[in-house]
Every structure is written in structure tokens, then in C-alpha cells.
Amino acid sequence: MSGQSGADVPEPVPIKSVQTLRYRVETLPQVEIWHFVASMQARGAETFALQLCKTLHAAGLKQQIIVLSAVDIALEVPDGVEITYLTQESRHAFRVVQRLRGKVADDRPEVVLCYGMQPLKFLRWATVGLRQSPLIMYQKIGFSLPWIKSMRWLRCHYLRFILRAVDKCIVMGPAQSVELEKVFGVPRININRIPNARVFPSILTYKIPNNNQILFLGALAEEKQPDIALEVLVKLRAEGIQANLKFVGTGPLADSVEEYARQILPADCVQLTGAVNDVWGHLCESSVLLLCSRTEGVPGVLIEAAYAGLPVVCWDVGDVKAVVADGETGLVTPFADVDGLVAACKTLLLDSVLCEQMGVRAKLKSKEFEMNRVAQLYLDSFSSLLKGEK
Predict the structure, then answer these.
(1) Which of the chain's ends, N or C, has fewer CB atoms near its CB within 10 Å?
(2) pTM listed for this prediction
(3) Going by C-beta distance under 8 Å and a sequence separation of 6 or more, which residues neighbour residue 384?
């Protein structure tokens, strides 16, 4: 982050305190909420789910975590919260549905919050014909259409069938709401918008930034397009900007990214850290966060960058503008415009004052995405759903 140096900077007080949340939980009936996630990998939706669960657990809400896949466990569960891995015994889809159905019938949760379409599909089939089914909430974590490569008409109709079982859909941005309503026929009254969120550290230690460092934070996977980040770096250096690029994260493309970087760039200008437990140090020592995904929802990494006071350069993809205010907290360029990303990065790397100003505004905006505040909105949503309200 430009303009900060070597000091512990006090952070703003959270908008909603744990005491406020605890009082709100006490006004709910005695219920159990399930958080149903695809995995326990350190990805955006799973990170949000665990942080929301931990926040609500501290306020006294009874919860369980249901996990579809036990592969690559990287997240810690709050003490006192039960967790069930559905695929420890079998990966066969029918047996997973049977096991989930039995657990729902035995435990009788009042509300199941599904993070993404994959858990929702399993819950939909597991609850068919049950005498007492839970209320179903669906948190939309991205967009469905970019992932449908063939038989679009048939698959869209299948997703409409799945979504008809949902009592309330949670979206994080306006474009997600449009897809649900226009493509999948979800009534507007069944859609609630609640922001993405993160638990922020109370203190951040800012380092003297590397004014030429571009940060790529996320999975090294096809949809995140790390090769585009390398292309941006090549073009910047061709224009005389001695920038360097740090990849923080891992994924199926990690080896190919490393090899490609070795072939086209000097050895000292690209760094791959692999998976890390704490991203804040990397955010606080960088000058720009670069996001060049081909599809996104409302990326949590943008919220983390905002809290660290780090300006963002990204394409106009998904609902990134729910976090990044173009020209105020970062620069948003047209989708798939690589030269636009290059120009935006160049603008920020050559103007430390502008970087600092954007960082300050981003820091202020990040308060909208503080987890205690958003947890309050989820409690309100649980309450209205249990009362039979939309």
C-alpha cells in the first residue's frame, strides 16, 4: 500500500458488536442453522461460510457445518460447532444423497444455507418427499451461465427445477440478481441482496511498500487467468515500467505459470508463494492488486484489498463494481481488454499519490463489508424466513 510505513495502524470499530449480535440471536426461536459448503478448501465461499459461522457462534447461535467433500481440508472449524463430511465413506452421488437425507431427517435443522449450486443440488434431491423439510437458503457465489458449456437450454431448465425448492436466495451484487430473475425465473420477492464480507484483523502492520509490486491473489486456475497477469507484466516492462508480480495462491496451473514465467521474464520479477495462511502481509506490501478473471461474483479478495488500503485494477466482470468504485478505489477496465489493464497498472505504478488517495477511500469503503455488520443482515434474513416472510 502506498504512503504507509512500518507502523501499527488502529482500525475502525466494527459497525455491529458481538454483544449486539448476541442480543439479536436471543430474540430468535431456538433453531439450528446448517452451513452447507462444497469443501473446506481456503476458497472464497468456504472462507465466508466459516467466518460467518464463527461470528454467529460467538453470539450464541446453534449451527452445524456440512461439507460435501473431505478433500484438501484447509479451514478450521470453530470450537463447539459440529461438522459432517458427507464423502468420507463414499463418493457415489446417490449414497451421498442418502446420507444427507438421513442426517436431515434425524437432526431436523430449521434452516440450511447452501453456499453455491453444488451443495444446493444435493440438498434438493435429499429432501424430496421428506415429511419435514428444512427451509432452504441459497447463497449465490458467482454466475452459472459462464460454466454451462453445452446443452444450455436443458441445463438451464434443470437449474430452474433446483432453484424452485429454495425459499430465499441471497445475492451479493445486482448482476447476480438479474441472472436469477431473468435466466432462471426466480421471483424478485425471493431474492435478498446481502454484501460479501470478511473478518478483518484489529491491527494491520504496514510495511514500506514495493512501489513496483503487482499482486495476484487467488487460485491459479483457468477461470482466474494467471497467464493474463503475466502478459500484463510483459507489456509493462516493454514500456520501461520495472514492475514485478507476486502470485499468492496455488492451483492446477501453478507449475505451468512458473514455467511460462521462467521462459518469458527475468527470474527476479515473478514470485510464486504457494498457499498461505495469512494474506494481509502480502496485501500491505504491494502497490496494486490485479484481478483478470473470466468470471467472478463479488470477490472477497477485493474486500481484503480495500481493507488493506490497496487499490485494485480489474476488468468489469461479474459484480466487481459492488466493491470497486472505478476512479475512486481502483480502476475498472472493459472485460477482456488486456491493454486496458496495462494502462491502468501503469497509471497507478507511476503515481504514488493517486495510489495513496485510492487506498484511503478503499479503506473507508471496506467498512460496508465488515463481517459483524453482514452477520446482522443474515440474522434478519433467518428471522424473516422463520416467520414466513420473504
Answers:
(1) C
(2) 0.90
(3) 390
